[in-house]
Amino acid sequence: MHNVTPFELNYLGLDSKEFAKLELLTSEQLIIAWILILIEYFVQFINIPFGIINMKILYCTSLLHRNLKFILITQSGLIIFEALIRLFFVGPIKYFTGDIFWFQTEFRFTTIKFLVQLPIFSRMIFCHLIIIERICATVFIKCYETEKGRIFTASWIFIFLILSVLNFVHNEEDEANDNLSSQNVTLSSAIIAVLLALIGLFEIILIGVIWKYNKNKLNGFSNSSQLSIIGGKPVVVINVHRRTSEYKLKKRYQYLENMRSALQLAPTILAYFVAGVSTAFSQTFYSIIFEADDFTCEIISQLNNVFIAFINFLIIFTTIFFHKILRKNFFKIFNQIFCCAPKIKISQEKSTINKITPTLAQQQTEKYFAILKGTWD
User: Fold this and answer.
1) What's the rounded Cα separation, in Å, for the pair 324 and 321?
2) Is the pTM higher than 0.85?
3) What is the arrangement of strands in the sheet containing 242-243, beginning at the earlier edge strand?
4) pLDDT digits (tens, 9 = 90+) for 259-304
5) Which of 131, 143, 188, 358 is the most buried (most CB within 10 A)?
6) For the chain, which domains are there?
């Protein structure tokens, strides 16, 4: 059995009792645990390059409002940060100490413990933040496109950090008062997780309502006006007699972009909802089901880690895949990275040659028959 050092006990939260439990596990159980761990780390490894590509595409695009763009970039950055923690922080500790069920929240150094919990807490917040931003874009459509949004961005960052600190302090007090390990949860935490999952279901419906509202506004705007070119510039003519300013075009464009953003973000909101359901299930399991053995509890925890890694991948992927222009930019960068562009050019050249060759053959055949005809005549 592993001898726990003072550093491991005071800073990593390792306990000799945990190693005693590991000694009771069979080889088959250890193999199952390691397979789940390796699957999670494989997905986390994929999340890093995809997250970087995602951030590059979002940073370079001008199709999204700055508020939404900054939220999505921060979201991808936190997912990358969590993947780095799991791969280069949690993984080596599990391997070198032998405690394969060690989790980053067991760390006893307060500052680092807060930082490693930040990506976990962000999954509870960013879904609501995206919905709030889209509501603002819909309600304040007259001025939202022209506003820089610095107040909105500064406000949500400040509120997010305050809520993160309060959540961290609350969890620390629960562990101290109830003498819980960081892998266990209280009944109140489980209830909060269930409520957040229900709110996530409501937000899925709400993003559909936002899309429908902007669609109706766009259709109504199109029915009451028509686009014309007057003086070499595109303007909107209402009732074919009254000319409006170019502001109307911006408003019409904003309705269209709000529809596109709603369609783009709907799968991402759904992924957040599934993550909330997974968290609610695992926390309810720990809070209510007491008769499960240690191995079952740890496997449920590791399955949740695997599931969350897949959810993070889906969040990164769906953010850009369901936007037509961003998806096109993604495949362009993907082709550049994996050197697909030269192959495409070569294939195009071959197809061009194949198209030209029959034409030359036809010309030679016609000349040949012309010569034959001349000899017979």
Assistant:
1) 7
2) no
3) 226-230, 233-238, 242-243
4) 888 888 999 999 998 888 877 777 776 666 555 567 777 888 888 8
5) 131
6) 6-349 (1.20.1070.10)
